[in-house]
Amino acid sequence: MKNCLTALLLLTFTCFSWAQTQATSVNFETQTITMAMTQEPPQLNGMKATDQVSIMILSHVMEGLTRYDRRGNIVPGVAERWEVSDTEATFWLRDDAMWSDGQPVTAHDFVFAWRNALKPQTASEYAFILYPLLNGEAINKGEMDPAALGVEALDDRTLHIRFERPTGYFDKLTAFVTYFPVRQDFFETKNQRFGADAEDLVYNGAFQISQWVHSASLRMTKNPYYWDRDNIHLNAINADYITADTRSRLNLFIDGKIVSTALDGETYKDALTQRFRIRRFTTGTVFFLEYNHREQRVTANLNLRRAIQHVFDPDEMVNKVLATPGNLPGKSLFPVWLKGKTDKFRQEYRAPEAALDLDLAREYLQKAKTELGLTAMPPLVLLVGDSPTAAKQAEYLQGKLKSTLGLDIKIDIQTFKQRLAKMTAGDFDIVAAGWGPDFDDVMTFGDLLSSWNLNNRGRYNNPAYDEQVRIAMNSADPKVRMDAMGKLQQIVFDDAVVLPQYEQGVIYLLHPELRGVVRRVVGADPDFTYAQVVKPNQTK
Amino acid sequence: MSDSIAPSFTPDYTPASHGHSVEQLSRPSLSYWQDAWIRLKQNTRAIISLYIVVSLALFTLAGPLLWQVDPALQDLNQISQAPSFPKRALLADPYERWQPIILDDFPREPETYVDVDLMPAPTGVQPLGEPTTQQIRLRWEPVVGAGGYSIYRNQHAPEGINDLGLPLATTLGGNEISYEDRLNLEQRDYYYSIVPTDGFDEANIYTTIKVLPTIAITRDEATQRGLIDADTEIQIGDPLSLRFHPFGTDYLGRDMLARLMQGARVSLFIGICAPFLFVMFGILYGGFAGYFGGQLDALLMRFADFVVALPFLLFMILFKIAFGIGPGESGVLPMLIALVLLGWPGTARLVRGQVLQIRNNGYIDAARLLGAKDSYLIIRHILPNTMGVILVTLTFAVPGAIFTEAFLSFIGMGVAPPTPSWGSMCNEGVKTMLSHPHELIFPATFISITVLAFNLLGDGLTEALDSRMRSR
């Protein structure tokens, strides 16, 4: 009997592995694709999600009031139309928006989700993104009852929102995961297990999770109740592999097991010899050197920062030191892809550039020494992450500042958590930092250096800067807001608050038979929602 | 028989004359050291190793005097160069930031998106200005319906749409019809392909152009590198020789030879200082324990056992903290101390064993009976007889210490950048092992040769200093 069982098990196992090996990256007949996740999502409770993989999966299986189209514009999601004014907003929900169990998505689901995400006991790291709602911040700090939140369901199909301050970009915020709806009755039956497993979620997006084998695979299938189901071509998205190792991902891609993989400085050479078409994409993240502006630090001195500004060449850094394609030289805190009034922000407000001028830089350094009353500058501590490229950049900067200004740099290499702790404690002179956007508006970068922002690790404090942020925050007029941001850009340059290094770009491979995949700077990345497998002979 | 006859006979024996006549030595007598040296000289491997060790010392100490190149100087025009003869370059104008060509009379984004598969390939692709390794500038004619252009670069002629090479950039509008490439340019053929996009999707058509840049260096850089004087005769466009890097350069264009010399200082300093110190301490400790023996010996040796059990890496980290070695400061001193404090028990045990053995020999007892004091016994009899063991331990400890240094620098616990050591150079080199193998091969070879040389020399010394093998 035992033998029988073993044989049966063996048989199932063989069948299973046979089925596994048959799974290819794309299948035209079944419209199925297979991908690899860099890590397993810790959980899929949208109110708490912070990591990239969770956000990517959630954006496929859930939908907010609005969503981004493939060109990055805001289009209707659960809401079919909306009105946003300085003080309030109204969203009208579509009739055919359904949960995956056939129940309609109502305005109450949004009210419940937003109140819940702001509750202090939920401890959502992204709660701040709900602060534009009236009393949002006070509720999150436990000072007010969640019921006081400025959101109410006028009826099942109408959602009315009151703002704490004018939020012209509110329609963009509603596409973010923290703004996704949660159904109260379902949430309460699941209690603490909400989002922990495939059956512990109810879905309103284009797909639903049909199978989730923890630390092995995750399978998304088309949601039959999704309102736009006729335009969804893929029947299933299989995440059969979990690995962040670019080398093994490349091997999976070469073997035709996964549809897409990112490349790094070493693997791209193999991809070139394999004759794959390499694509590039700007992640939207800006990397910069942030100075410590605390009083006791020498980097609080403006002339020292200006001296460094006049010798650092972001162009050289990107082309010679990073030396992988896709990165753009950093010229501003605001990346090139941000939208301005009508055009791109950076087209409308050109970023000022410091001339590379060694004599001028030395003059500034001399001034700094006089002001600080020093004959020689003490060594500056440069805090960086522990990746190979980070160390290389740090050494480049060390050599550059030594050979041009005679400044000594001590490189402090730390792991991510340790670096964050040191950044928060202010235990650095210069830190190599990066900032990725949370939503598609200049404000996601603009308020970064305001005195109240906890992510302003250098504790830069300039009332003029804060004032411009407030002007932009308290207005819904694009011109007023963008003008204020343009002034911010100038302040960041004049005060040499941070030193932009580069805008990160990645290169990646994508299966040529898969069309319509969208890479995004905000939200789901990559987005397979409207993707489609084309016939093999259609590709050239 | 009473009348005795005076004895009159030749005696069989005569008393020996008083004098010191020992066997005649045909050759001058050899001391222990002379004999050892003679036997070492017969050992070819050991002698070669000795020469290597001596040349390493010269390389480290005299090398920087002959090869006066700053090991921290970054030459970003010559990144990751393999060993080669000096290159010639043209003197170029200083780089000026360049604004891309943007047409005013052409739409940035097409009014209606056309099917990307129907888009024509760009025409009139041509280089703008002279292509050099400073910059390659391209321009082309706008394509109707385009919302941007993707620029690819390859090192061989593309064989199809999937073989265009590296995606360098995508311009932001259909009216932006030029691109400047400065990405790590070398003197080789580049095949640039321009693909029109509708601002989002790329077309399946492309135009390729082949460009061969000439090596160029700007006047500022040339002056900074000391290639020309400020009041030089050399004009823009004239050729000049670039810095010669016989061992190539590393990932930031720093001279490998100069770095190897500087790295040798750290590696050999640790490699020789640490063993010397801990062998010294081991001799004293082991000699003391072995000579006096008994309870004291047992106690001392149990303590040595305890030290053996201490984890080296942990202590290294603890010392680093205890010494207040902050981030970005060299960890060589704590490394030395940790090595000395934890390395001695091996030597101590060996010396103790040897001393115990010698102490029980007959000549020691004889000397003691003749009234020799402890100090005389130690200096005259015991120490010289343990010398062989000591020297051998020392030579074997050197490669061990060099290896430890290399390992610690490899994991980032050793020297602080920009100071190189052979271990940290290997650490950097291994990242680009496939594309630029020389960055790993050189320091790795130096470590291997040094370790091998010290090991073979130690082997030779073992044989040469073994008194049982003395030549007769």
TrEMBL record, chain A:
CDD domains per the UniProt record, alphabetical: PBP2_OppA
Annotated signal peptide: 1-19
GO terms classed as biological process: peptide transport
Gene3D superfamilies tied to this protein: Dipeptide-binding Protein, Domain 1 (3.90.76.10), Dipeptide-binding Protein, Domain 3 (3.10.105.10), Periplasmic binding protein-like II (3.40.190.10)
Alphabetically ordered keywords of this record: Signal, Transport
Highest taxon of source: Bacteria
Any GO molecular function: peptide transmembrane transporter activity
Subcellular location: Cell envelope
Keyword Transport: yes
A Gene Ontology cellular-component term: ATP-binding cassette (ABC) transporter complex
Residue ranges constituting the Solute-binding protein family domain according to the UniProt record: 73-451
UniProt similarity note: Belongs to the bacterial solute-binding protein 5 family.
Name this polypeptide is given: Peptide ABC transporter substrate-binding protein
Organism annotation: SAR86 cluster bacterium
Upper taxonomic lineage: Bacteria, Pseudomonadati, Pseudomonadota, Gammaproteobacteria, SAR86 cluster
From TrEMBL, chain B:
GO terms (BP aspect): peptide transport; protein transport; transmembrane transport
Family: Belongs to the binding-protein-dependent transport system permease family.
Name of this protein: ABC transporter permease
GO CC terms: plasma membrane
The species this protein was found in: SAR86 cluster bacterium
Domain called ABC transmembrane type-1: residue spans: 264-458
This protein's UniProt keywords: Cell membrane, Membrane, Peptide transport, Protein transport, Transmembrane, Transmembrane helix, Transport
Subcellular location: Cell membrane
PANTHER family referenced in this protein's UniProt entry, alphabetically: OLIGOPEPTIDE TRANSPORT SYSTEM PERMEASE PROTEIN AMID, OLIGOPEPTIDE TRANSPORT SYSTEM PERMEASE PROTEIN APPC
Renumbered residue ranges of the record's region Disordered: 1-21
